[in-house]
Amino acid sequence: MKFIAILLIALLGFVSTTSASQAECDFCDVVVNYVEGFVLKNKTQSEIETELEKVCNLVSPNLKSTCDNIVMAYTETIIKLIIMKENPSTICQQIKICPQTPQPSLYEQMASFNQDKLKEIKGEVLKKASPLLGRTRESSDICSICKIVTGDVIVMVKQNKTESEIISDLDNVCKEFKVFANQCTQMVEQYVPAIIGMIESEDPQEICQQIKLCPPSNSNHNNNNNNHNFYNRPINKGRLSITKNF
């Protein structure tokens, strides 16, 4: 509470001279930071709303209604977005309270992505590869999942989706893998940022070999028959169709 009080004092120093929409945006940022702290403490929605009402009581009367409206209308959504690991700094933009900040496409980001940085990322990925590869029995399934995930990343990058949007979409894709959903989710969390940086010059098979989730081509005798044509897979209402050959 002390942290939020400090934020509010700083906020009130200039919010009274700003427009109503800017005031809403400023309050939203405060609420998001406050909610994030309580979600980490496993507080319930009811407990969080009660604490936020106390926060709104600290502000001046002419701003209290703005604070109350944000709390009543958006607390539940903000909690869900934080639980989904959305970036707190962009949540108020996502729920349309704050204006959108233009973001460069992933292709534009990759254009300035130097080779030294790419090597650094590959090195970090290889260090993390062993936990997911400790299951020899499932290695072919993990390789198949990796190629599907990588293919989806390639298509979504071509659609100029941001990294957070790609990860969010892939979380939904992973649910369709049933028994392998946990491995898929772990793969997305650990490897997607590196995959994004590697797709400029490599195909799904090569990328999955680079990050040690698929065996080298010369040891995969069935490679040509099992490869998916990721670049031309149909898209249905923004969702990628998935073919599982395992």
From TrEMBL:
Domain Saposin B-type per the UniProt entry, residue ranges: 21-102, 139-218
InterPro entries on file: SapB_1, SapB_2, Saposin, Saposin-like, SaposinB_dom, Sphingo_Act-Surfact_Prot
SUPFAM superfamilies: Saposin
Cited Gene3D superfamilies: Saposin-like
Keywords: Disulfide bond, Glycoprotein, Signal
Domain of life the protein comes from: Eukaryota
Signal sequence region: 1-20
GO biological process, one term: sphingolipid metabolic process
Any one GO cellular component localisation term in the record: membrane
Annotated SMART domains: SapB
PANTHER family assigned: SAPOSIN B DOMAIN-CONTAINING PROTEIN-RELATED, SAPOSIN-RELATED
Name of the featured protein: Saposin B-type domain-containing protein
Organism this protein belongs to: Dictyostelium purpureum (Slime mold)
Origin organism lineage: Eukaryota, Amoebozoa, Evosea, Eumycetozoa, Dictyostelia
